[in-house]
Backbone:
């Protein structure tokens, strides 16, 4: 398990880097966030309020090192400060309320996009030279389409013009949140367009990536050998070629996760989906620095966890990473 | 073929950004009484809510969107070259530290970081937005360049340069870097796409300079002007289409280069189509 231990070490280091970056950004960026806030409020702030804000940021006259230790201590207790937008709610509460929506939406959409994209990539490499090659130019185009533009187009066609799907919120105003079938149906119905946006916008990378690795794998001797043995096409395609081509694909998938998360932030905003992306924008628009920072931290840590899950899948699929331990 | 189409698209947009505003001459922010008109002979791409001509905005927006894309790709690639080549050439502890730094920036989600950084900017001008995007976008290039440097630093010509007493900096930038120019070019093109997308995202959220017309800010105003509910498709389709087309052009050039390097990727007709087998 040396492979996993090494990866875990790297993620812990990256988590520390994200936490420290989060501490340094407000202190390194030009201008004092508190001064910025006071200036935007045109001086209509009580001195006590300024003091309270300074404390919320952990900005004090203590040495930078002492501030850093205090910050780490607060973090260890799960304290991210209070949100200014939703005062006096704790930032951690705002995040806890919005995170499940994002994890559900992005998780399911990413999984669907991965499965469809990878399978299409395998098929396109296998049937090279047939009509399936026609998907290539389309995938090349989709690969560069902004997420929020796909979202706008879907809203326009399926939301406004055809009126098939709702275009905002996570569930209807007429249902009570709860463990009822009615509520679940409403959630799925409202998640349809945002999820399709993420699937469409992120799928092209998977198609192109898998096709390229697969095409290279198809030239390997063991694939020719498998065909020569008279194995069925399906078995050669999936069990011999795709089985090996999927390894580099998982690595590139893990690296693209940060990009997918960025895109889904924009998607949530178009659909006013009550996830963490909409909250991030609210935070930035209202100069709610504690909320912004808390959300950046949570998003970064979530991407790290997702990367670690991808590594676990890699270990399951690649026996070589497991043999090292002996 | 791919490279040709790709270059064609890029040249078209480059000409549009450079010469377009001179040809059109009108002010992209000028309003008129013809609000929300569909495409017509007078306004080829229609008008916005306040009667601004959308074609004029697209042409002027090309300057800002592509300008920020290229500017931040230049900054990001300078960083990538510095980190990748220095780490790859020296190896050892220097490389360890630089690699970890690169991998950290590769894993951290770029757009949320850009949004947070933009939130702290006192003024969100073209330059500061480009720098913020570059700071989050250099890691991929650095990783590729490091791997390439590692593979050529033991080559004879590098050994010869070292033996003849050239200093490490001279070797890195005058012996190794010229060999890596094709790799730098591909990484540059990929960074331009990422930067244009990032700028569009930032402007769309209203977090960049909204007083200048860019494709992203056009989409911001389209969204806030309820273009979708009114059914003004001509307002939000063109800016997104331009972004996607530039991305396609850059990707085509990059894929073309990949295919030259790896002939298996080409989409030639294979002699015996696989579907013929059972």
Residues:
């Amino acid at each position: 398990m040396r492979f996993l231990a090494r990866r875990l070490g790297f993620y812990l280091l990256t988590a520390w880097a994200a936490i420290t970056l989060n501490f340094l950004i407000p202190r390194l960026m030009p201008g004092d966030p508190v001064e910025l806030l006071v200036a935007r409020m045109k001086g209509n702030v009580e001195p006590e309020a300024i003091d309270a804000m300074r404390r919320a940021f952990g900005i004090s006259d203590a040495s930078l090192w002492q501030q850093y230790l205090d910050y780490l201590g607060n973090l260890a207790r799960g304290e991210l400060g209070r949100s200014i937008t939703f005062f006096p709610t704790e930032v951690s509460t705002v995040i806890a309320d919005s995170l499940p929506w994002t994890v559900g939406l992005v998780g399911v959409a990413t999984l669907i996009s991965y499965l469809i994209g990878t399978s299409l990539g395998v098929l396109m490499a296998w049937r090279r030279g047939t009509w399936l090659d026609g998907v290539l130019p389309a995938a090349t185009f989709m690969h560069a389409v902004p997420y929020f533009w796909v979202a706008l187009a879907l809203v326009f066609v399926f939301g406004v013009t055809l009126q098939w799907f709702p275009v905002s919120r996570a569930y209807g105003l007429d249902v009570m949140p709860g463990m009822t079938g009615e509520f679940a149906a409403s959630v799925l119905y409202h998640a349809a367009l945002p999820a399709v946006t993420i699937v469409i916008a992120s799928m092209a990378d998977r198609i192109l990536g898998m096709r390229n690795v697969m095409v290279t794998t198809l030239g390997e001797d063991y694939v020719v050998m498998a065909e020569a043995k008279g194995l069925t096409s399906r078995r050669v395609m999936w069990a011999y070629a795709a089985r090996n081509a999927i390894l580099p694909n998982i690595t590139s998938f893990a690296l693209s996760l940060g990009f997918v998360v960025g895109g889904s932030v924009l998607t949530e905003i178009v659909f006013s989906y009550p996830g963490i992306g909409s909250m991030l924008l609210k935070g930035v628009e209202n100069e709610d620095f504690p909320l912004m920072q808390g959300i950046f931290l949570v998003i970064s840590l979530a991407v790290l966890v997702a990367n670690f899950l991808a590594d676990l899948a890699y270990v399951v699929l690649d026996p070589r990473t497991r043999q090292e331990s002996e | 073929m791919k490279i040709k189409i790709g270059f064609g698209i890029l040249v078209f947009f480059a000409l549009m950004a450079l010469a377009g505003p001179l040809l059109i001459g009108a002010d992209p922010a000028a309003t008129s009484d013809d609000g929300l008109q569909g495409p017509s002979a007078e306004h080829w791409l229609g008008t916005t809510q306040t009667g601004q001509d959308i074609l004029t905005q697209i042409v002027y927006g090309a300057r800002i969107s592509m300008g920020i894309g290229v500017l931040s790709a230049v900054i990001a690639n300078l960083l990538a070259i510095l980190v990748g080549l220095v780490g790859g050439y020296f190896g050892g502890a220097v490389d360890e530290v630089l690699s970890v730094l690169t991998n950290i920036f590769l894993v951290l989600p770029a757009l949320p970081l850009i949004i947070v950084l933009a939130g702290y900017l006192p003024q969100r001008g073209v330059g500061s937005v480009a720098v913020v995007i570059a700071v989050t976008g250099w890691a991929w290039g650095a990783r590729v360049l490091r791997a390439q440097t590692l593979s050529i630093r033991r080559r004879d010509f590098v050994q010869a340069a070292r033996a003849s007493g050239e200093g490490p900096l001279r070797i890195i930038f005058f012996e190794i870097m010229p060999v890596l120019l094709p790799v730098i070019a591909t990484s540059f093109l990929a960074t331009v796409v990422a930067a244009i997308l990032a700028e569009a995202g930032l402007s769309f959220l209203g977090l960049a300079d909204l007083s200048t017309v860019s494709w992203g800010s056009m989409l911001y105003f389209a969204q806030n002007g309820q273009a979708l509910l009114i059914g003004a498709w001509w307002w939000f389709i063109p800016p997104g289409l331009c972004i996607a087309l530039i991305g396609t052009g850059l990707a085509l050039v990059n894929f073309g280069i990949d295919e030259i390097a790896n002939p298996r990727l080409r989409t030639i007709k294979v002699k015996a189509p696989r579907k013929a087998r059972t």
Remarks:
- Chain A touches chain B through 71 residues (CB under 8 Å).
- The domain at 96-288 of chain A is CATH 1.10.3720.10 (MetI-like fold).
- The mean pLDDT of chain A is 84.
